[in-house]
Records
---
Amino acid sequence: MKFILITILIFAFSFNYGQKLKIAVFYNQKISSIIISTYLGKYEIWGDEQFFTDLKQNDVFQCTILNDSIEIKNVSGLSRKFKQIELRGAASINVAKYKPIIPSLSQRYYDDNMTISIQNGSLFFLNFVEMDNYICGVVESESGYQVSKEFYKTQAILCRTFALENIGKHYSEGFHLCDGVHCQAYKGKNYSLSYHSIISEAVTETHDLVIVDSSNMVITAAFHANCGGQTVNSEDVWGKPKSYLRSVTDNYCQYQRNSQWEKSISMNEWQQFLLNNYPQLATKNYSWSFYQTTRKGYFRINNDSIWLRKVREYFQLRSTFFSIYQHNDSIVFKGKGFGHGVGLCQDGAIQMAKKGFNAIDIIRFYYKNVKIISFKEIPFYQSILPSN
Ligand SMILES: [Zn+2]
Ligand SMILES: [Zn+2]
């Protein structure tokens, strides 16, 4: 197992000139035509490994699939066909704009280099990007709205930890991570975002930092929107205990938008759920009531146990932290929190940051017995990472 991991990590880093990652972007979007222009710096366009032309400020190119090639052309009529096109950054900071035309999607900004080829009849984009530029884009996607810098620093450390933990996820496809929620949402950097520069600073200030457990292994940095006042032991949701994913009481996330919820279903729907999953309970005429003041994994009734995660998934509830009561011919779920509840609670972390806690305090509150270190200090990575 360790050998496979080492092989993957050698693949991950040694061919990539330092801390760069290969991220498949517009993954699964099935784009057949796109307009590309330079936003910052300058680019060289290479076609099938040969220099083709410069892409200077205000130059605009369109790339379109034509049979099994990519046709690249500009407004002045310059046009060529290639199997693969590469945008290579030629200044110290290089950012290009990508506006899909077929289908029409919103414009994105990607830092650093981009390789475009054809896969399964669609354009296939690989962003060869500095790790911190990638982390910055992920933090923008995962955090969304304007909060304090310490929260963004916390989120940057989490996203970097996640990226390293999952670096081998798309190994067989020749890249590291995709840009969907399967890995981490990454839509490039949004330069028009009013708080873009705060996120950039937060990423720079936490450069290289990751969270490790007592064995110096990067952790599963799980997080969720709101825990409802108590986080969950990992085994109650994923069946596997992790020493650092322990339930903690969280007084910081109350009175937030996602801290309370309610959902009502008909008794028939409840009976149908039982018939599908716990048929032995469906025929019994119980008076349904169940209370959670502290988190439970199961609703125990006589000798049976209903797994709360199953109830949440079946009825698409916001969390497993709910009580149940019967009201006439309905079953009412009265719940707290939003998300799986494991690891860091984002609403709680935002409030902690507002109260003056720093990113390290916040991480240590939600993950038990962990250290925050540079991943270059980990002997395991040190031996295989280029030093730059
Ligand atoms: Zn993925
Ligand atoms: Zn919370």
---
Amino acid sequence: MRGEDMEKFYSKELIEELRDIQDTYGYIPEEQIVKIATKKNIPKAHLYGVISFYSMLYLEPTGKYIIRLCNSVSCRLNNSTEILRSIKEFLKIENGGTTKDKKFTLEVAECLGHCGEGPVMMINGQVYSFLTPEEAIKILKSLQ
Ligand code: FES
């Protein structure tokens, strides 16, 4: 693929447009993908590729709160696996799932950039660090 084609497919403008759609709908609906593909004259498959590549873009509706729990090495050494187990049990969902009431979506994430504060989770951009399973559940219960 030539440089100018790469730019068309993966431009900052395209990502911003996708993020705007994400903000409006809570995910990227199929009809919006078709619209962008037509407008920019790029294959839908490339848009799906871009959306899949960026973990903050979704093809399905998500919960009001997106829980991103780090399970990379440093957090795992600090018991993030136990926190994940507690959250899954409490919300009755698996990784990638959304609760029936559409309140929570759970995602196991790669390093969230707070390795010295693990275990770490992020909920809609808010970072929670030095977690225990009990604290994680208390945080979830506090969210309206
Ligand atoms: S390893 Fe968890 S925040 Fe970096």
